[in-house]
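### Sample
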Amino acid sequence: MLSRCVQQEEMDKILDEWRIYLSDEEIKEEWSVEKQPDEDVLQWKNIDAYWGNVLCLNDINIGKKRYYHLSKIVKAALCLSHGQAPVERGFSINKRMMSDRARMAQTTIVGLRLIKDSVKKENVSETVITKEVIHFYREAHSKYKAELLENESKEKKLDNVKKVPECVRKTTQDELHSLKYNVDSAHKLIDEGNKRLEAALKRKSFADVAAAQALITAGNKKLKTS
Protein backbone atom coordinates (compact mmCIF):
# COMPACT_ATOMS: atom_id res chain seq x y z
CA MET A 1 0.00 0.00 0.00
CA LEU A 2 2.80 2.41 0.89
CA SER A 3 4.48 1.90 -2.49
CA ARG A 4 1.27 3.03 -4.20
CA CYS A 5 1.10 6.25 -2.18
CA VAL A 6 4.65 7.52 -2.42
CA GLN A 7 7.64 7.04 -4.66
CA GLN A 8 10.98 5.81 -3.39
CA GLU A 9 12.64 9.17 -4.07
CA GLU A 10 10.07 10.88 -1.81
CA MET A 11 11.06 8.97 1.32
CA ASP A 12 13.83 11.38 2.31
CA LYS A 13 11.49 14.35 1.94
CA ILE A 14 8.87 12.59 4.05
CA LEU A 15 11.41 11.98 6.81
CA ASP A 16 12.52 15.61 6.68
CA GLU A 17 8.92 16.82 6.96
CA TRP A 18 8.32 14.42 9.84
CA ARG A 19 11.27 15.87 11.76
CA ILE A 20 9.92 19.37 11.14
CA TYR A 21 6.49 18.26 12.35
CA LEU A 22 7.90 16.94 15.63
CA SER A 23 9.26 20.38 16.54
CA ASP A 24 6.66 22.58 14.82
CA GLU A 25 5.61 25.28 17.28
CA GLU A 26 2.72 26.45 15.08
CA ILE A 27 0.78 23.27 15.84
CA LYS A 28 -1.68 24.25 18.54
CA GLU A 29 -2.70 22.01 21.40
CA GLU A 30 -6.34 22.96 20.91
CA TRP A 31 -6.30 21.17 17.57
CA SER A 32 -6.01 17.81 19.32
CA VAL A 33 -7.64 18.28 22.74
CA GLU A 34 -10.51 20.29 24.12
CA LYS A 35 -11.01 21.17 27.75
CA GLN A 36 -14.53 20.68 29.02
CA PRO A 37 -16.11 23.75 30.66
CA ASP A 38 -16.20 23.64 34.46
CA GLU A 39 -14.31 20.35 34.35
CA ASP A 40 -10.66 19.55 34.65
CA VAL A 41 -10.95 16.94 31.91
CA LEU A 42 -9.44 16.97 28.43
CA GLN A 43 -11.36 15.45 25.55
CA TRP A 44 -9.56 14.29 22.43
CA LYS A 45 -10.79 15.66 19.14
CA ASN A 46 -11.19 13.65 15.95
CA ILE A 47 -7.84 12.74 14.46
CA ASP A 48 -8.92 13.72 10.94
CA ALA A 49 -9.77 17.24 12.16
CA TYR A 50 -6.36 17.51 13.82
CA TRP A 51 -4.45 16.45 10.72
CA GLY A 52 -6.67 18.68 8.60
CA ASN A 53 -5.36 21.68 10.51
CA VAL A 54 -1.76 20.45 10.41
CA LEU A 55 -1.75 19.76 6.69
CA CYS A 56 -3.15 23.23 5.95
CA LEU A 57 0.01 24.89 7.25
CA ASN A 58 2.04 26.61 4.54
CA ASP A 59 5.76 27.00 4.13
CA ILE A 60 6.40 30.72 3.62
CA ASN A 61 9.81 30.14 2.05
CA ILE A 62 8.59 28.04 -0.87
CA GLY A 63 4.94 29.07 -0.96
CA LYS A 64 3.65 25.48 -0.74
CA LYS A 65 2.11 23.23 1.84
CA ARG A 66 4.57 22.55 4.63
CA TYR A 67 3.76 18.85 4.80
CA TYR A 68 2.99 18.12 1.16
CA HIS A 69 4.82 14.78 1.04
CA LEU A 70 3.93 13.73 4.59
CA SER A 71 0.25 14.31 3.81
CA LYS A 72 0.27 11.31 1.47
CA ILE A 73 1.22 8.97 4.32
CA VAL A 74 -1.26 10.58 6.71
CA LYS A 75 -4.16 10.37 4.27
CA ALA A 76 -3.36 6.75 3.46
CA ALA A 77 -3.28 5.89 7.18
CA LEU A 78 -6.58 7.66 7.82
CA CYS A 79 -8.21 5.57 5.09
CA LEU A 80 -7.55 2.39 7.06
CA SER A 81 -10.41 0.99 9.11
CA HIS A 82 -9.98 1.39 12.86
CA GLY A 83 -13.06 -0.62 13.82
CA GLN A 84 -13.59 -4.23 14.88
CA ALA A 85 -16.16 -5.04 12.21
CA PRO A 86 -13.88 -7.27 10.04
CA VAL A 87 -12.80 -9.26 13.09
CA GLU A 88 -16.35 -9.68 14.36
CA ARG A 89 -17.46 -10.68 10.86
CA GLY A 90 -14.78 -13.36 10.81
CA PHE A 91 -16.02 -14.77 14.12
CA SER A 92 -19.56 -14.89 12.77
CA ILE A 93 -18.44 -16.79 9.66
CA ASN A 94 -16.52 -19.31 11.77
CA LYS A 95 -19.55 -19.79 14.02
CA ARG A 96 -21.81 -20.54 11.05
CA MET A 97 -19.29 -22.98 9.60
CA MET A 98 -18.94 -24.85 12.91
CA SER A 99 -22.61 -24.86 13.90
CA ASP A 100 -23.01 -28.58 13.14
CA ARG A 101 -19.31 -29.52 12.91
CA ALA A 102 -17.87 -28.64 16.29
CA ARG A 103 -14.97 -31.10 16.04
CA MET A 104 -13.38 -29.62 12.93
CA ALA A 105 -9.61 -29.32 13.09
CA GLN A 106 -7.91 -25.97 12.81
CA THR A 107 -6.45 -26.84 9.40
CA THR A 108 -9.95 -27.62 8.10
CA ILE A 109 -11.30 -24.29 9.33
CA VAL A 110 -8.42 -22.41 7.72
CA GLY A 111 -8.97 -24.25 4.43
CA LEU A 112 -12.69 -23.50 4.39
CA ARG A 113 -12.08 -19.84 5.17
CA LEU A 114 -9.52 -19.54 2.38
CA ILE A 115 -11.95 -21.04 -0.12
CA LYS A 116 -14.83 -18.90 1.11
CA ASP A 117 -12.78 -15.69 0.96
CA SER A 118 -11.49 -16.52 -2.52
CA VAL A 119 -14.97 -17.26 -3.83
CA LYS A 120 -16.28 -14.07 -2.25
CA LYS A 121 -13.73 -11.94 -4.09
CA GLU A 122 -14.46 -13.50 -7.48
CA ASN A 123 -17.53 -14.61 -9.35
CA VAL A 124 -17.79 -18.40 -9.03
CA SER A 125 -18.92 -18.78 -12.63
CA GLU A 126 -15.79 -16.96 -13.78
CA THR A 127 -13.35 -19.04 -11.74
CA VAL A 128 -10.73 -20.64 -13.97
CA ILE A 129 -10.30 -24.38 -13.36
CA THR A 130 -6.64 -25.07 -14.06
CA LYS A 131 -4.80 -28.39 -14.10
CA GLU A 132 -3.17 -27.45 -10.83
CA VAL A 133 -6.57 -26.94 -9.18
CA ILE A 134 -7.75 -30.33 -10.47
CA HIS A 135 -4.55 -31.93 -9.18
CA PHE A 136 -5.07 -30.45 -5.71
CA TYR A 137 -8.69 -31.61 -5.74
CA ARG A 138 -7.71 -35.20 -6.57
CA GLU A 139 -5.04 -35.27 -3.87
CA ALA A 140 -7.19 -33.67 -1.17
CA HIS A 141 -8.82 -36.88 0.07
CA SER A 142 -5.59 -38.89 0.08
CA LYS A 143 -3.83 -36.15 2.06
CA TYR A 144 -6.75 -36.05 4.46
CA LYS A 145 -6.54 -39.82 5.04
CA ALA A 146 -2.77 -39.60 5.50
CA GLU A 147 -3.21 -36.89 8.11
CA LEU A 148 -5.81 -38.98 9.94
CA LEU A 149 -3.44 -41.97 10.01
CA GLU A 150 -0.62 -39.79 11.29
CA ASN A 151 -2.79 -38.35 14.06
CA GLU A 152 -4.02 -41.82 14.96
CA SER A 153 -0.43 -43.06 15.19
CA LYS A 154 0.50 -40.17 17.47
CA GLU A 155 -2.49 -40.85 19.72
CA LYS A 156 -1.54 -44.53 19.99
CA LYS A 157 1.99 -43.62 21.00
CA LEU A 158 0.66 -41.28 23.67
CA ASP A 159 -1.70 -43.98 24.93
CA ASN A 160 1.15 -46.48 25.12
CA VAL A 161 3.24 -44.04 27.12
CA LYS A 162 0.35 -43.45 29.52
CA LYS A 163 -0.17 -47.19 29.96
CA VAL A 164 3.40 -47.76 31.11
CA PRO A 165 3.31 -48.36 34.88
CA GLU A 166 4.89 -45.77 37.10
CA CYS A 167 7.37 -48.28 38.52
CA VAL A 168 8.60 -49.15 35.02
CA ARG A 169 9.08 -45.48 34.16
CA LYS A 170 10.96 -44.95 37.42
CA THR A 171 13.17 -47.97 36.70
CA THR A 172 13.95 -46.64 33.25
CA GLN A 173 14.89 -43.25 34.65
CA ASP A 174 17.16 -44.86 37.24
CA GLU A 175 18.83 -46.90 34.52
CA LEU A 176 19.41 -43.80 32.44
CA HIS A 177 20.96 -41.98 35.39
CA SER A 178 23.19 -44.97 36.09
CA LEU A 179 24.22 -45.21 32.44
CA LYS A 180 25.06 -41.51 32.32
CA TYR A 181 27.13 -41.82 35.49
CA ASN A 182 29.09 -44.79 34.11
CA VAL A 183 29.75 -43.07 30.78
CA ASP A 184 30.90 -39.88 32.48
CA SER A 185 33.19 -41.86 34.77
CA ALA A 186 34.66 -43.73 31.81
CA HIS A 187 35.38 -40.49 29.96
CA LYS A 188 37.05 -39.06 33.05
CA LEU A 189 39.31 -42.13 33.30
CA ILE A 190 40.26 -41.86 29.64
CA ASP A 191 40.94 -38.13 29.88
CA GLU A 192 43.05 -38.59 32.99
CA GLY A 193 44.95 -41.44 31.33
CA ASN A 194 45.69 -39.36 28.24
CA LYS A 195 46.99 -36.49 30.36
CA ARG A 196 49.25 -38.80 32.36
CA LEU A 197 50.44 -40.54 29.20
CA GLU A 198 51.41 -37.23 27.61
CA ALA A 199 53.28 -36.17 30.74
CA ALA A 200 55.00 -39.57 31.06
CA LEU A 201 56.21 -39.47 27.47
CA LYS A 202 57.71 -36.04 28.04
CA ARG A 203 59.52 -37.33 31.14
CA LYS A 204 60.34 -40.65 29.42
CA SER A 205 59.02 -42.51 32.45
CA PHE A 206 57.92 -45.99 31.36
CA ALA A 207 56.37 -46.72 34.75
CA ASP A 208 54.06 -43.73 34.42
CA VAL A 209 53.28 -44.74 30.82
CA ALA A 210 52.10 -48.13 32.03
CA ALA A 211 49.92 -46.51 34.71
CA ALA A 212 48.40 -44.13 32.16
CA GLN A 213 47.66 -46.99 29.76
CA ALA A 214 45.97 -48.85 32.59
CA LEU A 215 43.65 -45.89 33.19
CA ILE A 216 42.81 -45.66 29.48
CA THR A 217 42.14 -49.39 29.28
CA ALA A 218 39.88 -49.26 32.33
CA GLY A 219 37.94 -46.36 30.84
CA ASN A 220 37.45 -48.15 27.51
CA LYS A 221 36.23 -51.29 29.27
CA LYS A 222 33.75 -49.26 31.27
CA LEU A 223 32.42 -47.68 28.07
CA LYS A 224 31.92 -51.10 26.48
CA THR A 225 30.08 -52.52 29.48
CA SER A 226 27.87 -49.45 29.95
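The chain has a mean pLDDT of 79. This sample (HAT C-terminal dimerisation domain-containing protein) is used throughout the tutorial notebook.
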